[in-house]
Amino acid sequence: MSITFPSPPTQPENSSDIPEYLNDYHPSREDVLEARHFFLRFMPLKLVNAILEEARYMPCLVMHNRESHILHSSVDRNDASWHYLIMPPIPPLPKDEDGEDVPMNIREVIFWFKSRDQGWGGDYGLTGLYSGSWTWFEACIYRRLPGDVSEDLRADIERNNIMAPKKEDLQAARIERVTDHASGSDIWNVQRNVRASSTVKLHRVRWTTDEESNTEEFLTSMDIDYSTKSGAGAGKGFVSSLRAGRQIAIISRARFPRWVNHVIEAAVEVYFSV
Prior knowledge:
The chain has helices at 29-39, 45-54, 151-157, 167-172; strands at 60-65, 69-72, 79-86, 105-116, 135-144, 162-163, 175-177, 188-192, 201-208, 247-255, 260-273. 12% of the residues lie in helices and 30% in strands.
């Protein structure tokens, strides 16, 4: 039996690149179960699970878009949205010998963004790096609805690097955005760019099912849904809204005159526990 462990998902503090391990081998559910069975011959289950956890040896779905794009707010009435990245559908649950679903929970989602804004501007008197930043990234979750619809029509929406589809486009393709019941919103703010900076910066955002882990960092104002310390959104309700067949989409944004979102690359990782 040969077990290949992916590189540890860590980044040096001075790194400015999305890590190469995203393009490495990622184990399937069957690979993880086989590895666990192998180690159980020598160690107790608790220790085996700790080793697999430390090695990040778990099923993972990855999408990495390296195609750069410059989004000017002016392309859509100074409130522009660009469909930068969309992931393949989350795979269905595996079946056991009796045809029953085998539990495989989504445990976390990690976002990577390498980007900057136009390098100048912003309101006078702002403090911190992210307050008043009007270029950012959002995430949404697409769900296909039943109905007779052309696959070509859906394919026109479910692809990278297009203008973000309008509500009527989604309706025509029998696709809807999943709504978070707590907030009533179908969009999650993921990451703001550093305000008025011409320096490209790498941001990493990690969301888990433990939705209370980062709440102290976030403001409660109704019109600010991101941390002014890190520029990241809290992601409440996002991971728990993911299901088999649903797709994560990343949308780059630029709002107000002369704001520009320079996207170098972005990636998303979805990790499963078995």
